[in-house]
Every structure is written in C-alpha cells, then in structure tokens.
Design brief:
This protein is an alpha+beta fold and 139 residues long. Helix content is 29%, strand content 20%. It has a single domain, classed as Regulatory factor, effector binding domain (Multidrug-efflux Transporter 1 Regulator Bmrr, Chain A), CATH 3.20.80.10. It has a four-stranded antiparallel beta sheet, with helices on one face. Helix 3 packs across helix 4. The longest helix has 18 residues. It is flat and about 50 Å long. The chain starts with 5 loop residues before the first helix and ends with a strand. 20% of the residues are buried.
Length: 139
C-alpha cells in the first residue's frame, strides 16, 4: 500500500477551490486539546506540542513493537482549530478572551484504545506536557 497523503486524497477538504463548491465531508478521528487565552502565549504552544507529540508517536509506531492493528504509512495531518470567545458581551477584541479546541486528524486505524495506549506511552516520555488534556473525538 502506498503512503496516504492527505494533500492528494483529501484535497477538497484541505485545499478547496476558490469558487463556491458543495463538498461532502465525512467524520474523522481527531486528537483534541481545549484551552483558552492568547494563542501567542506559552500555554497554547504547550497544547500544540501535546497534539504533535501524540500524533508523531502514533505515526512512528511502525518502528517499534506497538504497531496499531491496520497501521499504514501516512503523512501527519495539519493542525486545525475551532475558536470562540469567552465573554461575548465584550466589544473589544482581546486575545485573552479567546477559547479554542485545537486538533490533529488521525487515520482510521486510530481508535479510542490506540489513542489511550499512546497517551500512556507519551506521558512517560514527555513529562513536561499535560498529556491528560488530550481527548479522542470523532468529528
């Protein structure tokens, strides 16, 4: 099986055309982290690091003994996010008022069990990160 490249396989989802188009988006598995505050701050950077640590641990698992069932080679998906504000009554834009869910899509073989296994493994290697903030969601 050739390497799964989201840039090619999911082109309409990640690189839509410049003209209006109706596209059917199916559900996907994601590792997510919720937070709030300025995205230029240290906390946001650590949340991004949590996502990358877990995503790359799963991707590189083929080099070790913990290869998930159904594993195939793929390119790690890009960071995505959903943004909102905590206090909707404010008239000014203050980055400290932001709240977010940032996420990285995962291949279909990543299940809740695979996620939990790699969450546990990553916690032992990345003690500086609050890996427990990460959740597995189907979106």
């Amino acid at each position: 099986m050739k390497k799964y490249e989201y840039r090619i396989e999911d082109k309409l989802e990640y690189f839509p055309p410049t003209h209006p188009t109706i596209t059917q988006i199916i559900t996907h598995n994601y590792i997510c982290v919720k937070g709030e505050g300025n995205p230029n701050g240290e906390a946001f950077g650590l949340d991004v690091e949590i996502l990358h640590a877990l995503s790359y641990a799963i991707k590189m698992s083929y080099k070790g003994s913990d290869i998930p069932l159904g594993y195939y080679e793929y390119t790690v998906f890009p960071l995505e996010g959903i943004w909102d504000v905590k206090d909707k009554t404010r008239q000014d834009f203050d980055k400290e008022n932001l709240m977010y869910t940032i996420m990285i899509r995962q291949p279909e073989f990543v299940t809740v069990e695979v996620f939990e296994k790699f969450k546990t493994l990553t916690k032992t290697k990345k003690k500086n990160l609050d890996i427990e903030k990460a959740t597995f969601e189907i979106i």
